[in-house]
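Final report, results section. Input specification for complex C-07:
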Amino acid sequence: MKQAKKRYWKGLEELRNDSEFVKHADKEFPEYLPMEEQSGGGSNSRRDFLKMMGFGISAATLAACEAPIRKAIPYVVKPVDVDPSIPNYYASTFIDGGDYCSIVVKTREGRPIKIAGNTRSAVTYGATSAQVQASVLSLYDKQRLQGPLMNGEPTSWEQLDADVKKKLSRGGNMALVSYTILSPTTQNAIDELLAAYPGMKHIQYDPVSADGMLAANEASFGKAALPTYNFEKADVVVSFGADFLGTWIAPTTYSSQFVKTRKPTEANPTMSRHYQFESALSLTGANADYRSQIKPSQDGAAVAQLYNLIASKVGGSRVNAPDAGEVKFLEKAANDLLKARGKSLVVSGSNDPAVQGMINAINNLLGNYGKTLDIDNPAYYRKGNDRAMEQVVSQITEGQLKGIIFYNCNPIYDFYQGEELGQALSNTDIAVSTSDRLDETAALSTHVAPDHHFLESWNDAMPRRGQLSLMQPTITPIFNTRQAQSTFLTWADSPETDYYTYLRNSWRDAIFITQGDAINFDIFWDQALYEGILEALPRPLNQGEDSSENSSAASFVGNVNSFASSISKNYSGSNEGLELVLYQKVGIGTGRQANNPWLQELPDPISKACWDNYVAIPQRMAREFGLKMREGKTKKARVTVGERSVVLPVLVQPGQAPGTISVALGYGRTKAGKVADEVGQNAYPLATKVNGYTAYYNTDVQLELLDEEYRIAQTQTHQTYMGRETVIQDALLSEYKEDPKAGRYEFKVESHDGPKDPSDISLWKGHRYPNHHWVMAIDLNSCIGCGACVVSCQAENNIPVVGRQEVINRREMHWLRIDRYYSSDEEQVEDPDYNKLEIASDNPEVTFLPMMCQQCNNAPCETVCPVAATTHSSEGLNQMTYNRCVGTRYCANNCPYKVRRFNWFKYHDNQQFSDVNVAMNDDLGKMVLNPDVTVRARGVMEKCTFCVQRIQAGKLEAKKQRRPLVDGDIKSACDDACPVDCMVFGDLNDPNSRVSQLINQEKEGRAYHVLHEIGVSPNIWYMTKIRNKDAEEEINA
Amino acid sequence: MTAGNKFLVGVFDDDDVLLKAVTKVRESGIRIHECYTPFPVHGLGDALGYKRSKLPIAAFMFGMLGTSLALLMQFYMMDIDWPMIIGGKNYSSIPTFFPVTFELTVLLSALGMVGVFMIISDLRPYGKAKVFDLRATDDKFIMAIDLAKNSISIDEIKQTLEGAGAIEVNEKRGQ
Amino acid sequence: MEVTSAVRKPLVTGGKTVHDVTVDVCRRVEEKPTITWFLAVAASLGLLTVGFYAVFRTLWDGIGMWGLNKTIGWAWDITNFVWWVGIGHAGTLISAILLLFRQRWRMSINRAAEAMTIFAVISAAMFPVLHMGRPWLGAYWNLPLPNTFGSLWVNFNSPLLWDVFAISTYFTVSLVFWYIGLIPDFATIRDRAQGIISRTVYGALSFGWNGSARTWERYEAVALILAGLCTPLVLSVHTIVSFDFATSVIPGWHTTIFPPYFVAGAIFSGFAMVLTLMLITRKVYKLEDYITINHIEMMNIIIIVTGSVVGVAYITELFMAWYSGVEYEQYAFLNRATGPYWWAYWTMMTCNVISPQLFWIKKIRTSIVATFILSIIVNIGMWFERFVIIVTSLHRDYLPSSWAMFQPTIYDLGVYIFTIGLFFTFFFMFAKFFPVINMAEVKSIIKATSEKAPVVQETGTTTLPEEEMAPTASKN
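Structure output:
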C-alpha cells in the first residue's frame, strides 16, 4: 500500500531529535549487529544470507501484526494539572501581526488541540475566525525551524547571540522591522533593544496597510489610530469596499457586532440596512442588502458625492467633487443615512487618506462619532507606516543600513517592494530574522533566531485602549526556539532576559498599580491569566500614543476641501481601462499561515475555490471571451501591470464589477513549506501607490487570455439554487413585518382528508426520544459564510485534508460545508427555463446555507445500509459506526443532502497525502488530532455526528456533578466557533433550552426544514433569510 | 439391482416399439425389472405401472420450511435480539421482510426437493452406474428382466421380447 | 402415438437420427480442441489478466482509483452489475418459462443459455463485492451472521441485503437446474468415453446415471417443479435489483415502474446476449442443424416484444415525471434528455427502442449478420440504460450545491474488462468440455420434428408453435 512505514512518536527524544536518540533510532535492536560491515565488505557469506533472511522473515512476521504504541512512557510522577483523557483549558490570545483574538485553548495530555473564543472578551466577544481556528495546526508545522541558524548553518543560541551582538554593536544605521506590535510589553522589549543600539530604528508595516486611515485620522482628529467601531449600534451601514465581515482589520469583532442587528424576530421585526459599494464580490458584499458595483477609480468620487448629498441636506458645505459616474443606490444610501443620524456608520476600505478623511467627514456630519464609532478609545490593530518601510528599502538599496532585524515579518514576500528589498539585503552586514520558518525573508537573512509559536509564548496585547489580554504557553516549546522578546532582551543585555519574568514585572509596574482593589499581585496575576483579559489602562510606558493623551472627546478638524481636491486628482467616473482589485481571502488572508492545509482547503466563501488564487473576471467579460467554466475547467490568463505580470487561471465571478478583475493576496509563497509553496501567484507586487499611499488596486492593467487549460479546485460548481424554494426560503423585511411566515414555502400533500403536511403522512408511528433530543437551529440571516465553523469542525473531528487534485475530483471531506447560492435573473415561475435558471445574475443576491448531516428522524441512509452501520440513537442522532461500515456508499447516494463523505483512500500514514494531510501523516502533525475522535480507515463512510464526543463528555460531566444537563453544557464545534451565533445547538426535550424556545417561537415563523416535502424529518431547522430591501428592487439589486 | 442374478436384456431401437413391448410383455405375465432409455419416454412409467412421484409434496414442505425460517430469522434479528431504530421504521417493518422470505422459500424448496430426488434415485458424485447396455445412453432402449423373479422359461421370454420388436436379446449378469 | 401439429418447421434439420445427435454433440467434447478455440480462450484470458490489474489496484489503493465522487457514489460498478444480472436472466427464463409453455424450440439452445446465465451471474456478483470500500469484511458481514462482539445482525430493511439473498438464491437454483439437466448427457459421454481420464471424470460428473425409467419419471417431475420455482425467481431477481433504486429517495430512482421495467429490460438484454453467443457457437461448432434460423427468428421475436416493453417503460417514465408535478422528478428527466449526459440518454433510446423495431422486417429477422449486429447493439443500449439511470439521476439530485460530473478512470474500465474476460473464459471452457446441447431433450423430439418425420410439411408460417399435445396419446 502507498504509505509511509507506520511510525509512532517514541517519546520526547524523537520529537526533539535528540542526537543521542537519533543515533539509535534507526536500529531495530539497540545491540550491535555485525551485518552491515560484512555486507559493506562486499562479500555476503551464505550464512549472512540465511541470517538476514531469517531475520527478515521474522521481522516481516512481527511487522504484520499491528502492534500498539511501542514505547508508552507512563508518568512516574504525574504532573498535577495533567490527567490523561481530561482536557485542560487555558485562556490565551491569538496575535498575528495586527490581527487579534482572545481565545481559550483546549489541551489534552499537554498538547493544544483546539481553539475556542474567549467569551469574557469585550473585544472579540468569544468570536473566532477560520484563521484563528486553524492556527493550532500551524504549531505542529514540520516546516518550522528546529533551532537557530547562522549563515544557513544550524548553530547554538550562545554563538548566535555572540555573533549578532558583535555585528550590531558596530553601530551605524539599523532597522528593526515588524508588523504592527499589539503588545505593550513587547514594545518595551523592543525599546530596550533600540536603546542598546542607538542608530536602530523600529519600523512597523502591515502586509495590508491601513496607513492612509491612520493619516486621515491624524488629519481629522490629531490621532494616528483607528477608531473603535460599534456596528451593533448602527441602523444603516454603508461600506465602500471595506470587507469588514471577512478581512478588513478586525472582522471577527465587526461581524459579531454587525450581526446583532440582523436578527429580526416576530416580537421585534427590525434589522439594520447595509449598503456595499465595491468591485470584487466580498463576503461583506454578499451579505449586503444593497450591493452596488463600482470601479476602484470611482471609489473616492463616490464617497465625495455621498458627502455632498448628505452635506446639502444637513446644511454642510458642499465640496467640488469629481463626477463619480452612475453609482447605483448612492442617493438611496444618503437618504437612509440621513434618517439614521448618530445611528449610522460609513466605512471605507481605501488606503487613501483623502478618501478616509472624507469618510470621517461624513460620519462627523451624521454625528456618528462617540456613538457608532469612537476615536477617543482608539484601536491599535494597524500601526504600519508604509513610507517608513519604503525608506528602509531605499536605505538598504543605497547601502546605508548596516543591519536589519525582521521581527516575525516577511517583507520580501508581503511588502510590495519585497523584490527590491530581497536583492539589496546583501548590502547589510547583518540581517536577522526571528521567523519561525525559513521563509522568503529568513532565507536571505544571515541569522535566523526562530521565535516560539504563539501557543508556546508568553505575551500580552492591547488591541484597543483599555482592553488588555494575556497570552500564555499551552505546551513546552517543541523545538529549540526562543521567544523573540527574550532574544531582544538578551541582545540588549537587559538585566531580565526571561520574558515571562519581564512580562510579570511590567504588569506589576504598569498595570497592577492601576488596580486599586487587588492587594496581592500574584492573586491579581493568576486571576488575569485565568480570565485571559483585563480591562485596564496601563500606566504610561514608553509607548507614545497609548495612554499618555487624555481621553477627552476629539473634534473633527479635517479640511474637507483639501480631501476633495486630492480626490478629484485621483478619482473619476470615467476610467474606461480595465481595473485590478487586490483582496484577501477569508482563509489565507495575508498569507502568513499559508502553509496551513486547513486554510488552503477551506473553500473561498464566494467562489468556493481552494488551493489557488486566480483572476476573477465579471460574467460579462467571460461572455465576451466566450469562456464558460464547467466543473472548474477554465483557461489561464496573463495579468500585466506596468512591467510586472502574473499568469493565473481565470474564474468567472458573478458580482465582479464590470470593467474590473480581482486577484487574491497571500498566495504564491515560495518558501512557506510543502503545503503552500507554488500554490497560486504572489499579487503583492501588483499594488501601486495613490496619493502617496499603498493602493490595493490598479486602474491600468491588461488581461490577456492564454490558450492554456487549467482546472480550479472548487467544492461547488453549480451557482444557483434553481429556484428550489424548499432549499432557500427568503423574504423582504417589509413582507416579514406583515407575515412572519413570509417567504416560507409550505408544501402540502393531497390526501383523502384534505391537504396535509408531508410529515403527517407516514407508514410508521416513528420513535420517541425519551431522554434528550439533539437538534440545531441555523439562522440564514445571521450566517455570513465566513467558514470558521468549517475549520473548527475539521479540527474537532480529525477530518482529513485531501489536496487540490482530490478536490478537483470532488472528494473533499468537509463534514460541514457552506453552500453558496446566487440568485438568477430568470424569475421563479411555474415551469421555468432551467437552462436560464443555471445562470447567475451579473450582480446576484447571495445566500449562504450551512449544510451538514441533518440527523433525519426518518433517515434514508439508515434504511439502505445492509450491515446496519448507520442507525439512529435514542437521542435523535444519526449515528455512523465506522468499524461496522463496509463502504457500499449506498447511504451517500440515498442522502438527499449529500453530506456523507467516503474515505476513497487511506488518508493517514499515506505518502500520497503526506504533503497536504499533515495532521495525519507526520508524527508532529498527529499531535493535533483529537483523541476523542477516531481517525477513519480507508473505505469507510463518515459524516457529521453533531460532535457526539462533546455530547457524551457533557453528559458525563453533568453526571459526575450529580446534576441534570443544563443548556449550554454542550456546544457543537461549529456552534462554538461561529462568530455571529447563527447556530444554536441543544436539547429539544428541554423546554428551557435556547434551541427549543427558538424553535417553538419560530415554528409558525421563519423556521423551516430544507427539503421538508420528502418527509425525512430532519433535526436541523433553518430560519428564512430576510433582506432589508424595499420591494421594487427585489430581484437583482 | 440385485447383483449376481441372471437377466434377460432386450434391446429396442425405437421408443414407441419399447412402449408397446412393455405393455405386451407385462400382459404375458412377465415381470419387467426396469427399462433404460436415452431420453424420457412419455408414458413409459405408466406402462410399467409406476406410481406418480411424491416429489412435489417434498418441494412444498421444504418451501414452507423456508418461509417460516426466513420470517423467524428476520423477526428475531430485527425485533427481539437487538432492536435498532432504522430510518424511523418499526423494529419489525413487515413489508421489508417480503423479499428475503420469498427468496428463502424458493431456495429451500428447490434444494430440498433436488436433495430428495438425488437420494431416492441413488444419484451422487462418483456414484457407480449400473448399466446393462452402454448404448442405453445413446440411442437404444433397454428392457431388463430378472430371471430369478420370473417363473416363465427363458426361451418363452426371449420369444415374447423378440416378438415385441427387440432387435437383440442378450443374457447378462447383474452388477 | 406422438402427434404433432402439421404447421411446424422442423426444429432439427439435416435428417438427424438419435444417434447423430449423440455423435454431433459428443464429438465436440471428444475431439482435440480447434485452433480457433485456443485463440478464443487466449483472448479471454488476456482480458482477464489485464482486468485483474485494475481489480488489484482497486483492492490495494481503494475505491478512489475509480472516478466516483461525493455526489456520484455508484457509476460503472453498479451499472455493470445490473447489466450482467440482466444478461443472466435469459438462460433460466428460456429453460424455465419456455418449458412451462412447452416451447420445444428451446431445447437446442437452453443448455448454452443456462450456462451463460451462470457465468453472467458470476460476473455480476464480482461488482457488489468489488464496489465495497472494505470487501474483505463486507464479503461476509453482509450475511446474517452474529457479530464477533455479540448479536449485531444485518439490516433487513436494506435492498442491498435483499440483493444478497436474491442473487445467491438465483445463482444456486439456476446452477442446480442446469446441472440436473447435464447429468444424463454426462452419462452419455461417459458411456462413449475411450480414455480412462474422461471416463472417470465424466463418470464422477454423471452421478451414476443409468437412464432407468423410474429415474426419468422423477427427473421430469423435478425439472417441471424447478421450472415452476425458477419462473417467479427469475422475475423476482431483477425486481429486487430494481428495488435498490425504486426504494430510494433520489429523483429518477424513486419510481414504482422499475420492477416490470427492469425485468423486461433484463430479458431483452439476456436474449440479445444469448443470440450473440449462439451465433458464434453455431458457426464454430457447425451446429446449424440444431440451432436453425427458426430458433434465431423466435428469439428475435421475443426481442421485439421485450424491446417494445422497455420502450413503453421509458415513455411512461417521462409521462409520470410530467404528470406527477414533482419539480425534482421533472428536472431529473429533463436533465437526462437535455443535460450534460444527453448523449448517454439518446444512445440508450436508439439502441433499445428504435433498433429492435427493425426485426419487424422478416429479412432482417432471419438474417444471421443483422441479428448478430443488432444483438450487440442491444447490449450496448442496455448498458447505457443502467448508466443513465444510475449516473444521471445521482449527478444532479436535490441540492444544486452538490451537483457534479462523473469521469471514469482506466480502472473503471479495467474492472469491467475483468468481468468480460471472466465470462468468456468460463463460456469457452464450457463450450469445450460440456455438451453444449441438451442431447436427451433433443433426442426426445428428433422423431417428432426432424425432417424424417413423415407428417411434417414445409409451410412459410412463423407463428409461435402451439402447445404440444399431452403425451398420453400413447396410452392404450
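Residues 595 and 676 of chain A are 5 Å apart (CA to CA). Confidence is low (pLDDT under 50) at residues 30-41, 542-550 of chain A. This concludes the modelling results for the funded period.
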